[in-house]
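Cross-check.
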Amino acid sequence: MVIFGSRLFGKCDAIPGLGYVATKFGHINFVPLIPLEGWLVVAEEGNGWRGQAISMSGKSVLTAWARFLFIVVGLGSLLFGFIAFTEMEPGRAIPLGVLALACIGGLIASYKWKWVTHASPERALEIAQEAGIGEEGIAQLRRMYAASEAATVATPAQPWTPPES
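Predicted model, tokenized:
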């Protein structure tokens, strides 16, 4: 059975309190093939979503394709590595195992690495403006990002002084 249609892939650039960026792809059997349009997704409802169409995000497209490749290459190298291992060919099995681990690491990183998952303050404002968010919403985003940056600023390091005896 062949499943085809369109759906969102490449979730990235999350903006707290607003949504995230994803790309609507034409797919066959859930393989993201043709990027159709970019979306700022504000809510997911069952199999659908609500949001605003925005310009296509290269980061979202590359994220979708990279995640797909990590899965395919990772599973393929794991399978062929297992076959090589059972045929007592460790010279072929070890590099394939390393490749499988690298793909697993890449897939996990694509869901955890903040550079991929969260929008920078500049990008968040750009997305919000493009989606037609009003001035009050833009000002609220600026305040939120300013507060989070102020909270992450550490106090300067103090010079070490030896304890008195």
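Residues 4-116 form one domain. Residues 58-86 form the longest helix (29 residues). Passed to J.P. for a second look.
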